[in-house]
Structure formats: structure tokens, C-alpha cells
Amino acid sequence: MTDLAAELIGVSKRFGPVLANDGIDLAVARGEVHAVVGENGAGKSTLMSILYGLHRPDAGEIRRDGQRITLRSPADAIRHGLGMVHQRFRLFPDLTVAENIVIGAEPVRRGHLDRAAAHRAVAALSEKYGLRADPSALVRGLPVGVRQRVEILRALYRDAEILILDEPTAVLTPGETDRLFEVLRTVAATGVSILLVTHKLSEVMAVGDRVTVLRQGRVTGRFTTRETNANELVNAMIGRSLTPPAPKRAQPPQENPVLEVRDLTIHDADGVARLSEVSLSVHPGEIVGLAGVAGSGQRELIDSVTGLRGAVPGVFLAGTPVLSGRDPRVAYVPEDRHGRATAPGMSVAENILMGAQRELGSRWSLPRAAVKKRAKDLVERFSISAASVDIPISALSGGNAQKAVLARELTRPSHVVVAEEPTQGVDVGVRERVHALLLAARDEGAAILLQSSELSELRELADRILVLYEGRVVAEFQGDAHETDIGRAMTGATE
Amino acid sequence: MNIFEWSFLSGVLTATAPVLLAALGGLLCQVAGVFNIALEGQLLWGAFTAVVVSDATGSAWAGVAGAIIATVLFSGLLSGASVRLKADPIVVAVGLNLLALGLTAFLMRQIFGSGGTYSSPDLAGLPTLAELGLDIPVLGPQSPLVPLALLLVVAMAWWLTRTRSGLRLRGAGQHLEAAEAVGLPVAAYRHGVTLAAGALCGLAGAQLSLGNVTLFSEGMSAGRGWIAVVAVMLSSVLPYRLLLACLLFGVAEAFGFRLQGAGLPQQAADAAPYVITLVALVLAAVWRRRSHEHA
Asked: pLDDT tens digit string along B29-81?
């Protein structure tokens, strides 16, 4: 391909001691979907931030249509035909969809904002690319999938010729992801180049034309998707191949369930049922997967099982009712890593200690040395890479923070492990490690309830998969059931 | 006592005007994401500088202009320290409020030779609309700054929703990263609104010391700037709702004034507007939380 929309040549960027980008070359052809993959911390986000004018490179140059350009701010980048859909959306919650799209380049008639023209422009773009969104709706109330469409529409409205998407599918359901990919194909067909940052290899294979792989700030591979496979990409990403998934547990458990939910119904403040007559059981030595589109009752179910919703009638742990306010018999790996799972400002050692402080200290004191030693042992055992156990846990990468949470939760004496999106936002290496830890816990007899929006994850780990739809368990599958069958049940379709 | 008398309504507007002008400045800051709690100090500074300039020149309008300029400079301390030097705006604002209190008391002794209250025949007050030939009920006894304040409410509502710059300002206040991502110069907006709030507080101060009365006394802003801050918080950044919140204070103050005439102890009458405003704040907060829970 010779028709290059943008080139990065020898781009380097250093943050303190860390060389985030080390002489990276990246060439994007007109109208291609170019995937940029790599583990967390490989330098993908830094590279995209440089291309969008958020960071300035220490060395190297950026070219647009063969001309060297300098980007001092996103405004410069927009002027040069670049658009970016950020991982955490950058939308104005209390402005309408149309206002969010046109802001910065508003149509004006006789000194006034021309709302009608704005709505017309948005409608025309929606139509052209199949991105439906109500121009007069406030962004605040919109589902994430629609918000993402608004971000894409905004970039297209500003005539982006290169569209950067940073981990766009992290927040989407499988159905929404497919829709997004269709849209990206449509957009690329009009000559817009797409830079797709991701660490999900299935997506790269599904939608990418070419792939650039980064590892530790350098390019470790360039591939054409048609001529490569996921294994080759993994090798380039982590410098080794993944071990094949562990076999499922051989025989079904015979013992009594340790977690039992019987006819659980929960209403919200408005009297709407969030859960209706949900029953399930988890036995020692099994992983029960929980599938469903976001908001199908997962939050309420998990909060009931962990005791966070109070002593909910109908939830039993080892035969006795669940205790209010985080039942100590439950090991819980929350989705919200810097809210529920950790106290971001406290040290790694303190975060790993939480819940076990009584084992180490007396009522009045905590021996620092013992706390530190315990943390160091666990950091080593769970291969957490942390400069020291005294740094705040928020300074760790997402994957390492998650390993620290697992270290704390899996080592506590518990009856049940509840894991919520345990590999969200972590790279393939950590993902593999997290999966191994969960499987090892299961093999040692733990009862695990695993909620995940990634069907492939559920199919790799779970012995049984329950599907939640509008607060009901609508289907149960064996762990190796076909992805499309589970996906169909998630949308409420019945045979 | 008849609260439907014209003179009562006129009293309400008189009491409302300085609070409203200061609150408009606070609203502007709030829209752009600057929580400005220095309104009290700016209002006091405006009132003082208006009196100084009017006393020196013999012209009330020169006093108004002087107050605007002096208060814009004063609020430059806030925008410089908080936007440019990235100091904590709350800390800076508290400092400015204390500075205004101390500086006006100090300068008063330096310029007028005594503390307490200053009033003089040389001090020109603002003319009323009636004196300017517009003898209509309610507005007649007011200075021209009062209808100006009301017009500014309308103008701001229009500007914020119907113009390009208004939309951008609202955006800049809602989500910093989003504003930067679409290329808006957020820092420039924040400087701009802080200085504009200074101008409005200068007007408010001039109205207080040359319109409502014709004198300056130490600490004469007497919490009106804080009431303006509360009004901004009650307004959900909607100018018409801001007007309602300020009118509530105006009604309470005018009513308290009447009650004092009817024999209520002065302390109770003075406290009434603040108590009523506080109760309204609490009720509004409760109501808003309820409606959020239902949303």
C-alpha cells in the first residue's frame, strides 16, 4: 500500500525513567482498519496520545499525506483531520447529542446557534454511516453503546480522515461490538483510515486489515491479518505462546452446594423488579458462570450474594443465611478496581492486608514488619510487579492491581469466591495468569461464581453458565456450549 | 401592612439587585466550572471603591466605572492564582474575602480618616429612574442598575443557550477532558469568567453603596455575597432560577424590614433573610436528591 494517510517515524517518548515509546514507526494507509495491539503498558495509548496532540514526542516525526506536521494540542490534530474516540468517553453529560457533536464547529446563522442545521447535519451523518442517535437527547441518560456512537459521529462531523479508537469494545456487549465493527467497515469504505487500539486478538482478526504489535514501547511485529493467526500475534505481544487452556473439571461435584440462592426477587426504589425468582447453587470445586447483557440483574445478584445488599432473604452460604455488609465467608473480586476492590491511596501492603489484619495484629496494634513480610510473600507468589509494597496501589498497572486483589481474596479463608469481570482491561498475559489462579482455586475445592461479559472467558473457565435476562435466569448451559446459543439467550430469544 | 403595595415590591427589588448582580457573576463562573466563593469579598471591594471614586470625583457614574475596574483587578488575583498558578480556588477565595474585609477597613481610615461608616455631601449617589424622568411604579425609585440586573438575567439566559460561545462555555464547565478533546481553550474561558464576575461584583458593590444607600460602612456586604453563592448553587446554572433564588432573599429582607417597623427586634429582622435562604437551600437539596433517586 503506497497511499499513506499518516505516518509516525521514529517516535520516542519518555516519562521519567520509563521509555514508553522507543523509536516507533507506524504507517496507516487510506481506508484501512489498522489494529495496534499490545499488553498494558506496551505504549499503545502513549502513541495514540502523541498522534492526537495530547503528548509531544521527544523524538521522531508525524506526517500527514506525506507532509511533516507538528501537533501541539488536540485542536491541531482535529485541524489535520484526526479524530479520537477515547476509552473513557469525552462527552458533555448535560448537552444534547447534537450539541456534543457540533461543539467546536457549530453551525451559526445570524449570530445564533443554528439548531436545525446541527440536527440536520447529525441526522445526515447518522444515516450515512448507520450510527443511530437521537440528536435532541441529553447524553447523560444514554447507554454506553450510544455514547460511543456520539463520539464517532463527532469525529466524522469534524471531517476526520483518521479515526483513532482506544479500546472501543471494552464497554460493549457482544452484539454491540458486532454492530461497531460493521460501522467501522462502512466508515473505512468511505476512505477514512481507522486506528483500532485493542488487546483482544479476536477483534483484530475480525475487523483489522493490518496489525502493528507493540511490546515494551517497541514494534515487535507487523502483520497482514489475512496472512497471520492469533498465535503469531500473541508471540509478538508477550514474547512467548500461551499455554493451552486447562481441561474442564472431569466429574461433577457431589457435595452439597455452599452457595444457594432460592427464589430471590429484588425491587428497586421505584418498585421495578431487578431480579425475579432467581435460584442458583454453586458447589465446591465448580465454577458457575454468569452471562447477560449489562444491567440484566448481575449487580443486584452479586450484591445480594456478597451481603452488600444486607441480609437478603433467600441467600444461603453453607446452609445459613448471608450476613449483612460483606459476609466474611465470601471472597469477592469486584469489577470496580479503584472503588470497591482497593483503597487507591493506600499502599500495596495495606491493600493486600485488608480483611486479614486480625490474624497479624492484636486489637490495638499492627506489627509493620509482619504486614510487610506478608505482602512481600504474596507479591512474589502472585507475581505482582510492584516497585515496592509501600507505593500506593493506584500506581500499579491495572493488571498488577488486579493480581493484588486476587492475592488478597484467594488467600482468605472463604466458602465462596465471587469474581466480577476479573480480566476486564488487563492484557493477555495477566488474563492467562488470572484464569490459572481461578482454575487452581477451583481444583482445590473452591466454589466460584464468575460474572463476565466476555463469553469466551466464561466458556474457557465455567463448568456451567447461567444466563440472566431482565432479572431472570432464562437459560443454563454446559461450559462448552456454543457461543451463539448463549448470545441468543442473552438477548431474551427463546427457542 | 400590605405586601402587595408597590412600595413593598420596590423594596424587594432594591434588596435583590446587589445579590442578583453578584450571583450573575457567580453563575457565569459556575457555568465554566469555576466555583467562585470570593463573591462576598468582591462585593465589599466594589462597594468601597465605588464610594472612594464617587467621593473624589463627585460623579456616581465615575464611581460605578471605578468599582468595575477595581473589582476586575481584584478578581484578577483569583484567576491568576487559581487558573494560572493552579492554586486551590477555595483557599484563594477565602483569602480574598478576608483581604477585602481587612483592606477596606484599613484604606477607609487612610482615605477618610476614620473607621465605621463614611458618608458625606460630596458623595454622589446614583440617580433614580424617577429623577431621570421615568416615574413609573416599582422601578421609579430604583437606580438604573436595577433594571440592568434584570436585563442581564434575560441576556445571560439567551447567550448561554443560543450562541456558539455560550455553548462552548457550558461545555468547558461540564467536562474538562471533553472540552480539551474538542479543542476548547478552557483556561482562557476560566480567566474570562472570573474577570467578568469581578465586573459584575463591581456593579453589585456600586449598587449597594451608591444605589441602595449612599455611604460606605465596614463589612457592609453583610453576607450578601454568600447569599449569592447559595443562589448559584440553588439555580442549577439556569439564570431564571437564579433570579428566583435572589428574589427569595429580596422578599425575605424586605419583609424583615417591614416586620422591624411592626415591632420585631432588629436582630431577628436582620437574621430573617439568611434563615429563610438557608431553609430554602436545604429543601432544594432534599428535593433534588429525591428527584435524582427517581431518575
From this structure: 999 999 999 999 999 999 999 999 999 999 999 999 999 999 999 999 999 99
Residues 238-277 of A with CB under 8 A from B: 269-270
C-alpha cell at A32: 484501512
Q: What is the pTM of this model?
A: 0.73
| Residue boundaries of the structural domains of chain A | 4-238, 243-329+414-495, 342-412
Report the alpha-carbon distance of residue A22 to residue A216 in Å, rounded: 8
How many CA within 13 A on the CB side of residue A31?
A: 7
Q: Which three cell numbers stand for residue A153?
A: 459521529
ipTM of the complex: 0.79
Tell me whether strands A59-64 and A33-38 are parallel, antiparallel or unpaired. unpaired
**B241–A contact, CB cutoff 8 A:** no
Give which of A96, A113, A154 to mutate to test B binding, by max B Cβ within 10 Å: A113
Q: Where are the beta strands (DSSP E) in A181-325?
A: 193-198, 210-215, 218-224, 259-267, 273-282, 286-291, 315-317, 320-321
Kindly indicate whether the domain formed by A243-329+414-495 is annotated with CATH number 3.40.50.1820: no
Q: Do A108 and B181 touch (CB under 8 A)?
A: no
CATH fold for the domain made of A4-238: Rossmann fold (3.40.50)
Q: Which residues contact A473 (CB under 8 A, 6 or more apart)?
A: A278, A279, A280, A466, A467
Q: Is B283 on the interface with A (CB under 8 A)?
A: no
